[in-house]
Every structure is written in structure tokens, then in C-alpha cells.
Amino acid sequence: MSDLLRVRGLTVRYPGRRPWPWSPHRPVDAVTGVDLDLEKGRTLGLVGESGSGKSTLGRAVLRLLRPSGGTIRVGEFDVTGFGLRVPLEYRRAVQVVWQDPFGSLHPVRTVGSTLAEPLRIHFGLDGRELRDRVGELLERVGLDADMADRRAHEFSGGQRQRVAIARALAVRPRLLILDEPVSALDVSTQSQVIALLREIQRDTGTAYLFIAHDLAVVRHVSHRIAVMRRGRVVETGPSDRVCDEPAHPYTRALIEAVPEPEPARQRARRAARRTARGTATSGTPETADTPDTSDTES
Ligand SMILES: Nc1ncnc2c1ncn2[C@@H]1O[C@H](COP(=O)(O)OP(=O)(O)OP(=O)(O)O)[C@@H](O)[C@H]1O
């Protein structure tokens, strides 16, 4: 299968702030030399601690900022080749759902008008057809069609995130950037929203770039995982391989940081740690062999 998203050597440098008016800017290298691939209908999870550059990478793909170097392609779009105006077709092809379901929806507008706007702009719908499509979108994300008259503040956090997903789906994107989409939700709402996202992917073939700091959540939703640290991708591979046999010490540290509630799994994890220590002292290199198509960087 060919790649929908192809990122090569991506670099983003922010100009940074001046500590004092007379001192020079201190640039921040937020993303450095990143390569990523994502196929149609698949999910690539992007994990790493706060400040590792995940959101910056997502914003570069959305073309909300202009990268300092490298290339981004999404299908036929040469994203890094765009001038000042980003084509409307690209805005339709790539959509985003942000972390904050409270801040990302207009507080005063009805949810119906929030969903109607992209349908009007991108497909020229109006009248009955527009109302029907808004109702369909609400039902698609598990809400009632007659909720269209309500305003965002009348919804719970989970319901708002469903509305945000419906708004993103309205234009039938090929790629959806999900930037910490469940981090602000409680655990049971998280799993409902994740189940919804998986169902939508199965039905529509939309590819997801799923950005999160929580490796347990990312593992659950992703086919492949890329681990970011200080702006670089240090390890990439199929989700199970990255989580069960992490090749990079930083990935191992991230996995260690995930709380494990089940005693049997806690014991298995301790045993794996002991084995890893044993092999490390018997001369095995720190970065293990990766039998699949994974890449690691130290
Ligand atoms: N607009 C900006 N100007 C200057 N530096 C920035 C800007 N936005 C982000 N940074 C810096 O770039 C680096 C990467 O930030 P980014 O938000 O991409 O990380 P992240 O992994 O998404 O973190 P988080 O999970 O906390 O959002 C950080 O050092 C951050 O301080």
C-alpha cells in the first residue's frame, strides 16, 4: 500500500524569545530531521513527553506553520511547496481535533451552525439538504440529530469532543490529526471516544496521526508508533513491537512510566526488566535488534 503521509527530514525552528530587548533571539529547534510514513486507513501514534515536538509536527502537517526544512507530502499535495495561500482542497483533505473540547468549539453558536459552516463552504450545501447532513453527522458520532439547536456549553466534555470529531468529518478528510484528543476526558469517556474513532476509521478509511503523551492510549489505537524525544524520532515500529520489545532506552523509560494496575502484568514487567538487565550485562548492545521494519536512533 502506498503512503498517504510522507515526511522526510522535517525541521521546525521557532525564532524564540529574547531574554532582554538588547540580546539576540534564542531559537528553539522543536523538530529536527524527522521522517514519518502513514498509509491510508491506518493510525500512526506519535508519543513523547511534553515539549518533545509532537504538536509542532502536527501543526507543520496541517500547514499552520511553515517548516524550516524537509518535505511533507499528503497524497498528491506537496505541502512544503505551498506558498502563502494553502489550497482549500488541502484544508479539506487534512482536518484536526484538538485536546480541549471546551476551547475548540464556539461557546455561543449552536452546534448545528458549527457543523453547517464547513458543509456550506466546501460543498455549497444549504436548506433541507444542509440540515439533514448536520443531523447525520451528529448521529454518526453517537449524538441525537435534535441536539443541533444546543450550544457548546450545554454539552459534557465527551459530547463536545464528539462534536469536534463530527466537525472534522464533515468535509470527509483523508487524514485526521488527533492532538491529545482524549487527554482531557475521564477514563470511561476516553474509551468511548476511542471506540468511536476506530469505528469511523473502519467505515471511512481515514488515516489518523494520533498525538499523545500516554503510551497506553497510543498503543490501543495505533498500528504503528513513532517515539519522539527532544524533536527527534528515536524509534518507530509496529505498536506491539515498540511496546513489548522497545529498542530505545527512552521508549523503555516511557513504558516504565505507564502505571500497571494488574499484578500479573506487574510481575511480567519486573521479570522482563530482570531479563533485560541480564542480557545488558552479558554484552548485548543497548539498542536491540529490530526484526521488523522499525528504525531506531540513539
Ligand atoms: N510558538 C512557539 N514559539 C517558540 N517555541 C515554541 C513554540 N511552540 C512550541 N515551542 C517549543 O517547541 C518545543 C516543542 O513543543 P511542542 O508543543 O511541539 O511539544 P509537545 O511534544 O507537543 O508538548 P506538549 O505535549 O506539552 O504539547 C518546546 O520546547 C516548546 O517550548
TrEMBL record:
Disordered as annotated region, ranges: 259-298
InterPro entries assigned: AAA+_ATPase, ABC_transp_ATP-bind, ABC_transporter-like_ATP-bd, ABC_transporter-like_CS, Oligopep_ABC_C, P-loop_NTPase
Domain ABC transporter, residue spans: 5-255
One Pfam family this sequence matches: oligo_HPY
Residue spans of biased composition, Basic residues class: 266-276
CDD domains: ABC_NikE_OppD_transporters
Residue ranges, compositional bias (Polar residues): 282-291
Gene Ontology MF annotations: ATP binding
Transmembrane feature ranges: none
Keywords in alphabetical order: ATP-binding, Nucleotide-binding, Transport
SMART domains: AAA
Family classification: Belongs to the ABC transporter superfamily.
The name this protein goes by in its record: ATP-binding cassette domain-containing protein
